Amino acid sequence: MRVLAVEDEPRLLSMLERGLAAAGYQVETAANGEDGVVLADDEAIDLVLLDIALPDLDGHEVLARIRARRPALPVLMLTARADLDHKVRALDAGADDYLTKPFAFEELLARMRALTRRVDEPSGTVLGVGGLRLDLLARRVWRGERAVELSNREFALLEYFVRHPDQVLSRSQILFAVWEYDYEPGSNVVDVYVRYLRRKLSPGGEPSPIVTLRGAGYRFDPRFG
Questions:
Q1: CA–CA dist 188, 186 (Å, integer)
Q2: Where are the beta strands (DSSP E) in 14-145?
């Protein structure tokens, strides 16, 4: 995925570039609004991180120009202005999300994943991978021909794994995506629910699609038996 970061503060722009590259993203950068508008016009750009306080065109004008050319491009606004008026103005102008500086980098990554997940969601109501089928409307799951009864939270966790095959997902990423703000980041609730899922998906010792990566989190293997 290619991300455009439009930010005039050199240290923050450098941090974004290094951090996003380390997280597996391809990164383009712009230090002013004019360059940001030009780069965002490239169809290869999948998401924009856009500062509001830019030296020439401010972020609101940049956003307006991006929306005129690429209305569906996800844009996440970054700003030091935490007051409600600026947040409402940014969202009303077409921003998809808003993050106040300073921010935790894990939260930025989680918000980026949430935005791109909305764009990438399939139009159908059934997800299938390996031997699993998930009916998103009925919230029912089958492994092969066997129905698997899951709670709403278990279903949400499994859906998140299925939508991110072969990706290393940290516990904090999963917490933010599935539980949002319901639990503290230090909670072991992810480990507990992964155990629940494994028992229900593989009650007879069948291979589990959820792989534990010590010190890193979990990975969903779509090639399980």
A1: 7
A2: 26-30, 47-51, 75-79, 97-100, 126-129, 132-135, 140-143
Query: Could you give the CA distance from residue 117 to residue 109 in angstroms, rounded to a whole number?
Result: 12
pLDDT of 81-107, one tens digit each?
A: 666 676 677 777 778 888 888 888 888
Q: At 122, give phi and psi (nearest 5°).
A: -65, 150
The answer to whether residues 63 and 81 touch, using CB atoms and an 8 Å cutoff, is no
> Measured between alpha carbons, how far apart are the two ends of the chain, in Å?
29
Asked if residues 45 and 75 have their Cβ atoms less than 8 Å apart, the reply is no
Helix, strand, coil percentages for the chain (3-state, nearest 5): 40, 20, 35
Given a contact cutoff of 8 angstroms between Cβ atoms, the answer to whether 76 and 95 are in contact is: yes
> Residues with Cβ < 8 Å from 213, sequence gap 6 or more?
168, 219
Instruction: Enter the pTM of the model.
Output: 0.54
